[in-house]
Amino acid sequence: MREFFELFTYNFFQKAFLSAMLASISCGIVGTYIVSRRIVFISGGITHASFGGIGLAFFLGVNPLMGAVVFAVLAALGIQFFTQKGDVREDSSIAIWWSLGMALGIIFTFITPGYTPNLMSYLFGNILTVSMSEIWMMLFLDIIVILFFGLFFRKILYIAFDEEFARAAKIPVTLFNYLLIVIIALTVVFNIRVVGIILILSLLTLPQATANLLTHNFKYLILLSTLFAFIGTMAGLIISYYADIPSGATIIFTLVVIFGIFRIIRYLR
After folding, report:
1. Contact 127/247 with Cβ under 8 angstroms?
2. Which residues neighbour 212 within 8 Å (Cβ) at sequence distance 6 or greater?
3. Which of 49, 106, 134, 176 could form a disulfide with 75 if both were Cys (CB 3.0 to 4.6 A apart)?
């Protein structure tokens, strides 16, 4: 136990702890909406499309997260627009943006002069290398998410479970859909450094799947999802540190184990 608390004397572990806590809040809240709305694969399309922005940012020599934000938001709005106005099936629209982002990311990374050492941390995550500027971005995102869901909780609830009823209740569903898809895009990008592009979708769905075993109340789902996300992230972080294995993969594996434990408990009961 003493060795565990000594970890907090290290600056990099303090940053990792803060990023784990902040990521748990945004992924817990936004992930609950994603799972309830059944748009998990839209989030996957946005996630992989953001790789195009990372590749372009490496090529231009700018902050990769900024490039990822631009591509993720454009992909999110593009998927929403193509589906609603462009007469394109939702799965086809996701595939188009998913493929475009990955293709551009690979091309720009390939033509970037020299070696891109940080690329792996964006693909697979490395919570131990999160910078202070990235933590501030995650905090800013959490504030936006908490305020948005707090102010419009009931409207979001209606849209998540019964869009037709929401339209009948004169809620501007189209506007909220665009706003929510942008928030999803920002959540994906700002948490990429925690578990990476490949695994971020799991951080948005596994805690929710575990919470769903205990409750179906939307408000409690958010709270429990945030709690499970934090427990899984911290446990995975500690295990990866002592075992000297990749943190992103360990965090997701830990979340899967937690889900498995609760699933077995529920089955036995």
Report:
1. yes
2. 35, 221
3. 49
DSSP 260: H
| pLDDT band per the 50, 70, 90 thresholds, residue 214 | very high
**Half-sphere exposure of residue 211: CA atoms within 13 angstroms, side-chain side:** 30
Tell me the two tokens of residue 246.
């990749």
The token pair at 25 is 């809040």
Residues 149, 155, 157, 158, Cα dihedral to 10°: -170
Q: The tokens 């000297």 sit on which residue? A: 244
pLDDT tens readout for residues 229-250: 999 999 998 888 888 888 888 9
b/e map of 211-239 (b: 16 or more CB within 10 Å)? bbeeeeebeebbebbbebbbbbbbbbbbe
Looking at 7-161, list the stretches that DSSP marks H as alpha helix, in order from N- to C-terminal side.
Answer: 11-37, 40-60, 64-84, 90-111, 119-124, 132-151, 153-161
Q: How far apart are alpha carbons 196 and 199 in whole angstroms?
A: 6
| Least trusted range by pLDDT, from 3-7, 15-19, 192-196, 248-252 | 3-7
CA nearest 47: which of 170, 184, 248? 184
**What is the full DSSP assignment across 177-202?**
HHHHHHHHHHHHHHTHHHH-TTTHHH
- To the nearest 10 degrees (0 to 180), the angle between helices 64-84 and 90-111 is 150
Task: Collect all residues with Cβ–Cβ distance below 8 Å to 44 and sequence separation of at least 6.
Answer: 94, 98, 201
Give the contacts of 113 (CB within 8 A, at least 6 positions apart): none
Stated as kind and residue range, the H or E segment containing 233 is helix 218-243
Q: Is the pTM of this model over 0.85?
A: yes
C-beta of residue 108 within 8 angstroms of C-beta of residue 59: yes
How many CB atoms sit inside 10 A of residue 173's CB?
18
Q: What is the mean pLDDT of residues 75-104?
A: 83
